[in-house]
């Protein structure tokens, strides 16, 4: 069988702690969905293992596009706003109302597609950033990077 490597990435762990998760693992580290997460923290590694595991499962389940709004592609946001606005213009509503609704829908899109603004799967009334903030307390805990690879995605 011919196997071709189509995607790869590297996350440095010089000043950070990395976590990985393989969903529906066939063998160790072999599955249809894989997630890598890099966090920088002042907490000891043994204290953050559980949260790290939960965060990689959050990424696997909810497929965020970026860590926060700054990480989202500006062209994607522009295109999404155009689609939403065009959709709302067809309803025949006033331009000012259309813009307010479009802004709300765009903010919802950002919330659903940025890791820190997503609802925490374990407790949906909280956002991921609130869970991290509560966990960290006065310590530093920063999500540096994440990668999510799914078989067949991006073809």
Oligomer: single chain
Gross morphology is globular
Strand content: 15-25%
Helix content: 40-55%
Strand line-up in the sheet with most strands: 1-2-5
> What is the typical, i.e. mean, pLDDT?
89
**How many E-type strands?**
5
Distance between the termini: 20 Å
Tell me the major beta sheet: 3 strands, antiparallel
Q: Which stretches are low in confidence, meaning pLDDT under 50 for 5 or more residues running?
A: none
The topology string of helices and strands comes to: EEHHHEEHE
Which structural class should the secondary elements be placed in? Answer: alpha+beta
Q: C-alpha Rg, in Å?
A: 18 Å
Query: Count of helical segments?
Result: 4
Describe it.
The structure is a single chain. Helices cover 40% and strands 21% of the residues. It is an alpha+beta fold. The chain is globular. A 3-stranded antiparallel beta sheet has the order 1-2-5. The protein has a two-stranded antiparallel sheet with strand order 3-4. The longest helix has 19 residues. The protein is built from 4 helices and 5 strands.
Characteristic terms for this protein:
4 helices, 5 strands, two-stranded antiparallel ribbon, 155 residues, alpha+beta
Short description:
This protein has helices at residues 45-62, 74-89, 95-113, 128-136, and strands at residues 17-23, 33-41, 119-120, 123-127, 141-150. It has 155 residues and is α+β, with helices and mostly antiparallel strands.
């Amino acid at each position: 069988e011919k196997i071709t490597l189509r995607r790869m990435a590297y996350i440095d762990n010089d000043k950070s702690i990395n976590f990985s998760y393989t969903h529906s693992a066939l063998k160790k580290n072999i599955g249809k969905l894989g997630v890598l997460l890099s966090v920088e923290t002042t907490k000891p590694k043994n204290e953050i293992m559980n949260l790290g595991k939960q965060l990689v499962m959050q990424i696997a389940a909810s497929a965020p596009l970026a860590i926060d709004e700054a990480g989202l592609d500006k062209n994607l946001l522009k295109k999404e706003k155009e689609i939403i606005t065009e959709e709302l213009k067809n309803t025949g509503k006033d331009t000012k109302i259309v813009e307010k609704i479009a802004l709300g829908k765009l903010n919802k899109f950002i919330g659903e597609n940025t890791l820190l603004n997503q609802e925490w799967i374990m407790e949906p009334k909280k956002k991921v950033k609130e869970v991290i903030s509560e966990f960290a307390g006065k310590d530093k805990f920063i999500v540096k990077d994440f990668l999510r690879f799914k078989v067949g995605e991006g073809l």
